[in-house]
Specification:
The protein has 3 domains: about 130 residues, no CATH class; about 60 residues; about 45 residues, no CATH class. Helices cover about 25% and strands about 30% of the residues. The protein is built from 6 helices and 13 strands. The strands form 3 sheets. Strands 1-8-9-6-7 form a 5-stranded mixed β-sheet, with no helix packed on it. It has a 4-stranded mixed β-sheet with strand order 3-2-5-4, with helices on one face. Helix 2 crosses helix 4. The longest helix has 29 residues. It is extended, with a radius of gyration of 24 Å. It comes from Candidatus Cryptobacteroides avicola. InterPro entries: TonB-dep_rcpt-like.
Length: about 260
């Protein structure tokens, strides 16, 4: 099943409710706890999710005396800018390897205390770069198949040039169509220069009526009761003839 990556505007709306589920009405004795990617977040106001992609949103409820405790467990996917930085960072680490090769150990024997200290600092810096390289290498081994505007590629475009992104999970029917090269999933990217305007925007249904996606700018997250995201073609076609757009259904409190 394909997952539509929602823009920062949509992420702000998603922040207040469980992903694809209705939230329980808050009570005066309700305590909400937010955990994002395993880290407790204090003062949660939605800004912590801006620019992020929500992979899962679960709510567990427990009661202690008169207090109802709701734990919001949110998992996000790595941002496109994070991935792009990791891929481009490999060249820096390869430079670090070259610097280590260029060190003349015969010259080290002739160095004084001051020069030895400088060399130590240089080597420590290179060790840090090599550690980064090791982590990047492991990450790249598990990266998904990247397709930009219908063409397989090794790099991700600048996030500012991206119109839409669809993530296909490993092992899904859609991923299997690409064969073994998609064993870690597929990242399908459409750039702004190649995507029609409508396909770059999801259909937004607010309290039963289709509205412009710009309305997301004016919504108060505190007034949102539930947000449901439809991604598969069967659900999407109930709202639009374009199966690539995706649908966001929002219900506000009191409606």
């Amino acid at each position: 099943m394909k997952t539509l990556i929602i823009s920062a505007l949509c992420a702000l709306a998603l922040c207040s409710v469980p992903y694809g589920a209705e939230a329980r009405p808050a009570q005066s004795d309700t305590l909400d706890r937010y955990v994002i990617d395993g880290v407790d977040v204090t003062g949660f106001d939605g800004s912590q999710l801006v620019g992020k992609t929500i992979q899962s949103y679960d709510v567990t409820v427990s009661k202690s005396g008169r207090t109802v405790c709701r734990t919001h467990s949110i998992t996000t996917l790595p941002s496109l800018s994070d991935l792009r930085g990791k891929f481009s960072g490999m060249s820096l680490s390869l430079d670090a390897l070259k610097k280590l090769e260029d060190i003349d150990f015969e010259e080290i024997k002739k160095m004084g205390a001051g020069d030895m200290e400088k060399l130590k600092e240089q080597i420590d810096g290179l060790k840090d770069e090599l550690e980064i390289y090791k982590n990047i290498s492991a990450d790249v081994m598990h990266r998904p198949l990247i397709i930009v505007d219908g063409t397989e590629t090794e790099s991700i475009p600048d996030p500012q040039d991206i119109a839409s992104v669809i993530v296909t999970r490993p092992g899904s029917k859609a991923a299997l169509e690409y064969g073994d090269k998609a064993r870690n999933g597929v990242l399908e990217i459409n750039t702004k220069k190649n995507a029609p305007l409508d396909s770059a925007r999801p259909v937004v249904i607010l309290d039963g009526k289709e509205v412009s996606s710009d309305v997301m700018n004016t919504l108060d997250p505190k007034k949102i009761q539930s947000v449901t995201v439809f991604k598969n073609a069967e659900d999407v076609k109930k709202y639009t003839d374009d199966p690539n757009r995706g649908v966001i259904v929002i219900k506000t409190k009191g409606k």
